[in-house]
Amino acid sequence: MNLLLLPRGSVDADGRAHVVGDAVAHVRRVLGKGVGDDLKVGEREGRIGRAVIESLDDHGLRLRCTLDADPPPKLPVTLVLALPRPPVLRRVLQHATTMGVGRIGAEPVAQQTHVFDRGPPALAGEGHRDGALGGL
Questions:
Q1: What average pLDDT score do residues 23-40 get?
Q2: Which of 13, 41, 55, 92 has the smallest CB count inside 10 Å?
């Protein structure tokens, strides 16, 4: 599902949201959207819907959102894979998340480079999250 993912609680009671950071450049340059255009949006761990761009500049993006649908359910699938190198792991997480995989497990294997079997940075802290969020 390709949508602009908003942080939880960023849509106010009137359905308005302010977006800053990399998402603004993505909306402008990659999606080619401008004031008055609409796009798919979703709130993390919340509902999905559509939004109209009310204002757009280098400092931020102002949206009027209508979050009127529940996200599709995750698939009852568990993906288990040999622990890949961190760059590959980020891509696998992104694609698996896009397909709706509900659970993902990674196991070290005997033939693995010893640097990665101690737990790569991609599995610690925020490293895995970027890959997974990229698929939403």
A1: 91
A2: 13
pTM confidence score: 0.67
Task: Give residue-wise pLDDT tens across range 76-97.
Answer: 989 998 888 888 888 898 888 8
Residue with tokens 């694609």: 95
Q: Domain 4-69: which topology?
A: Ribosomal Protein L25; Chain P (2.40.240)
